[in-house]
Design goal:
Elements lengths: L1 H23 L2 E3 L6 E5 L4 E3 L3 E3 L7 E8 L8 E7 L2 E3 L10 E3 L11 E3 L8 E9 L2 E12 L6 E5 L8 E6 L8 E6 L10 E4 L4 E4 L8 E8 L4 E8 L7 H46 L6 H17 L38 H6 L18
Parallel strand pairs: 2-11
Antiparallel strand pairs: 1-4, 3-9, 5-6, 5-10, 6-7, 8-9, 10-11, 12-13, 13-16, 14-17, 15-16, 17-18
Length: 373
């Protein structure tokens, strides 16, 4: 009796479990996970989440999409839900107004999600969960947003003359790695020269011992999984220039400049020496010239000597003294110069005498009898 009860209990548990599994698996998501979905930035993405339901349960619908954290630690971010016959899509700020259900009625078996204008920050794992009590199923979709390569910049390093080594560079500053570079010649044979080596990772095309045959238009294309872009460079190889003539011309120009500079310095020093010599001569002349005699004192001494001479004169001895002209005083030493009675004295205008520094002096007059008046 004890054994029979145990068998009955076991059969009951198995029956309940099978009933639960039947109810649970009556709602099933039929879409298969793509593993990793790669899309380009700016494009749109549709993540499938189709399902079937066989249960006749009348529980409420609950469909939701959420963004799982990168490390699967912490709560997920709810994006959009369908509940109570209404859609709510304002939960997650970065995706606001860019997410919506593909189907107008998600309960009809299609809970797929559409995201427009993808951004690099939209990369992550998205989970679709469909629930109708007691049924429940979910699906994870990993979305990776890739950035297209930016327009590359082509450049040349090295001297573009025959016999030299030249390198063509191609660089794109943006884009999801890995980036692949490829060079091609668009003119002439349209093949790269035999003495060239391409690094597809760095975008450098190295060319050894170039010749005029290397000249032409070269195009670089950079690409990744979601896009590509290109740039063009015109590469022209010329013969070497005559460096000897350029160097000789430069040397001659420098020498002429130095010669002109020396001439200017010489002229400057010579002129300075001449000015110094002129100043020294003028200084010596001023030192050699004696100080002029005081005109006033000379005139006074002349007047006093003549007065004493005249005072000693008398009518009796007047004839013994020579006649002297007192009407003119010498310009230079203010001395009395004996002149002939017959010679006419030179006349100088009064204003000229003042300009010459003459001092007016009163000359005593003499009467006919020889007395001083």
């Amino acid at each position: 009796m004890m054994v029979n009860w145990s068998k009955f209990h076991l059969l009951s548990v198995v029956g309940l479990f099978l009933s639960f599994c039947e109810l649970t698996f009556s709602l099933k998501i039929t879409s298969t996970s793509p593993g990793v979905m790669e899309k380009a930035e700016g494009d749109g993405a549709i993540m499938d989440c189709k399902f079937t339901i066989e249960s006749t349960e009348s529980g409420p619908w609950d469909i939701e999409w959420s963004l799982q954290p990168p490390d699967n630690n912490g709560p997920s971010n709810l994006i959009i839900t369908y509940s109570g016959d209404r859609v709510f899509g304002d939960y997650y700020g970065p995706l606001k107004d860019r997410v919506h259900f593909v189907a107008t009625d998600p309960t009809a078996g299609d809970a797929s999600l559409s995201i427009t204008k993808l951004k690099y920050s939209d990369t992550g794992t998205y989970q679709c969960k469909v629930k109708k009590a007691p049924g429940l199923d979910s699906l994870n979709v990993k979305l990776v947003v890739l950035v297209k390569p930016s327009k590359p910049r082509c450049s040349i390093t090295g001297t573009t003359e025959t016999g030299n080594d030249i390198a063509l560079h191609c660089t794109s500053t943006e884009g999801t790695t890995p980036l692949t570079y490829a060079w091609e010649k668009t003119t002439s044979t349209k093949t790269l020269p035999s003495r060239s080596v391409l690094d597809s990772t760095s975008g450098t095309l190295s060319m050894k011992n170039v010749s005029t045959d290397f000249s032409g238009i070269y195009r670089c294309r950079v690409s990744n999984k979601v896009g590509s872009d290109e740039c063009i460079v015109n590469f022209s190889v010329t013969e070497p220039t005559n460096n000897a003539g350029v160097i000789a011309g430069a040397v001659i120009g420098v020498l002429l400049f130095l010669l002109l500079l020396l001439i200017l310095i010489f002229c400057f020093l010579r002129r300075r020496k001449e000015k110094k010599f002129e100043r020294e001569i003028q200084h010596e002349i001023k030192e050699d010239v004696p100080a002029p005699k005081s005109r006033a004192s000379t005139a006074r001494s002349f007047l006093s000597s003549n007065r004493s001479s005249l005072g000693s004169m008398s009518p009796s001895n007047m004839d013994t003294y020579p006649k002297t002209q007192y009407s003119k005083i010498g310009n230079g030493d203010y001395g009395v110069q004996p002149t002939s009675m017959n010679s006419e004295p030179s006349k100088v205008a009064g204003h000229n005498l003042s300009r010459m520094g003459a001092v007016p002096v009163m000359i005593p007059a003499q009467s006919k009898d020889g007395s001083i008046v």
